[in-house]
Amino acid sequence: MNLAQLSRRHVLSLLAVGAGAGAVAACSGGTNGSGGGAADGRIRIAMLQPPRSGLNPLSDDAFKLSRWSTAETLIVLDADGNALPGLATEWVREDDTTWRFTIREGVTFHDGTALTAEQAAADLSFAAAYSTPPRILDGTDLTAVAEGNDVVITTSSPDPLVPQRLSSPQLAILAAAAYPADLSPDGPVDPKGHGTGPFVLTEVGGTATATLERYEDYWGEKAAAAGLDVSYVPDGTARGAALRTGEADVVEAVPVSQAATIDEALLHEVPMPRTATLYLNTRSGAFADHALRAAARDAIDVAGLVTTMYEGHADVAAGLLGPALGWSAEQRAWGSEAWAGADGVAATGRAEGARAAGTVPAGTAITLGTYTDRPELAEIVVLIAQQLEAVGFTVTQDVREYAQIEADALAGAFDAFLLSRATVLDSGDPVAYMVSDFSSSGSFSLCFLQDDDVDAALAIAAGLEAGDERRAAIIEAEARILATDCAVPLLHERVLQGEATGVTGAERDPRERALITSATRLA
């Protein structure tokens, strides 16, 4: 993309303002009306995606409940992924497979019933036995029983991340009335009026709106805002217009294309634990040759991609893990410098076994794939193809919807596949992602890596409890993976969060668990 094309994107974003105006009206409805939230102490929120499962807390909709501070978990995580007290005040690991959590006293659910260890254990047991258990429990055989004011968690095998697992919004603790009377494992779970947070979910308007009120009997600091009026606004142009015109106070995921039309003081960049990575097929084809993988690594001008396609709203990759995991740069021997780059220097010597680029034989053909669900990837892949062709590869591009292309990617139909990948899952820890993508037995291995050193490094990291020792082992595993050049991390994504003038205390959370808290208010 040249400068003329970049300017065209800005022009198109300006022309799109009028097109999105009709959808903005959704943001001005609800209790608050269109006159702004400050007068009545309410906060209007424009959210990216509507609920997919009727706000069932055992689905991904749980993250909405968490971002509205209506449902809470036993454990919360700090910015580094360390476990902190939530509805549990303390915990201890009694042996390799047993943990004991003490339940906070004086907490009531929104329906007035008291939080007890029995209810917390029942909630966790229901989640573990659910027909589609929360993904945080994948591969984990968990049981929970109440003993006095404690919940005792037992796992079938040693699991050093049990506290982190219990921080997942999908394991929020709700009142007994939230669950089906017969405890059917596929029955509906209703969070309305059944959480413990500073806001009560009082109205659910399907896939259009939600309304929350301040919970006056909250166990912690009472909410500064009187309530929340939520609208779901999937159209990015409309979300940008809602912020620009004052129809919303807090706006999720303002598109980069809208940034030029909005006062920059209203936009806040949040680094995401998501990395755009080029996966190279090590099992067959051209990239079974490590020297050719290194040649592909050095051919890509990552800084140029960030400047042109993301208009600077992304970070050149320093590795698989980005700024959202602040400790990663501190642990790396090469700090926060880029791993790959068109200068051909960045990767050399940064990890044991890093390979110098080889010469690409004339006519070396590769198939490069990606998907249209993330439009920026479909644009980036064109530039990557040009850069690979410039060093001698002959590139065929294959771009489809993700649902249509995933099976082929997992079957090894591509020599290279561009993917935007979340690098931490619900536990806030990247080991599961690394094992899935890069171990010999990985369930999502697009590069089909079989490397004993990588497997050994991942096994060491997986066996350590959360803390500095585990983080050091994770970075060692990252270095081993990068040394194989099976994956070329390109850039770490950011999201633009919109906050109207006068909004204070809104959370800018890379893990997208928190947004509105007790401290969030309008001046």
UniProtKB/TrEMBL annotation:
<dbReference type="InterPro" id="IPR030678">
    <property type="entry name" value="Peptide/Ni-bd"/>
</dbReference>
<dbReference type="InterPro" id="IPR006311">
    <property type="entry name" value="TAT_signal"/>
</dbReference>
<protein>
    <submittedName>
        <fullName>ABC transporter substrate-binding protein</fullName>
    </submittedName>
</protein>
<feature type="domain" description="Solute-binding protein family 5">
    <location>
        <begin position="85"/>
        <end position="443"/>
    </location>
</feature>
<dbReference type="Pfam" id="PF00496">
    <property type="entry name" value="SBP_bac_5"/>
</dbReference>
<dbReference type="GO" id="GO:0043190">
    <property type="term" value="C:ATP-binding cassette (ABC) transporter complex"/>
</dbReference>
<dbReference type="InterPro" id="IPR039424">
    <property type="entry name" value="SBP_5"/>
</dbReference>
<dbReference type="GO" id="GO:1904680">
    <property type="term" value="F:peptide transmembrane transporter activity"/>
</dbReference>
<dbReference type="GO" id="GO:0015833">
    <property type="term" value="P:peptide transport"/>
</dbReference>
<dbReference type="GO" id="GO:0042597">
    <property type="term" value="C:periplasmic space"/>
</dbReference>
<keyword id="KW-0732">Signal</keyword>
<feature type="signal peptide">
    <location>
        <begin position="1"/>
        <end position="25"/>
    </location>
</feature>
<dbReference type="InterPro" id="IPR000914">
    <property type="entry name" value="SBP_5_dom"/>
</dbReference>
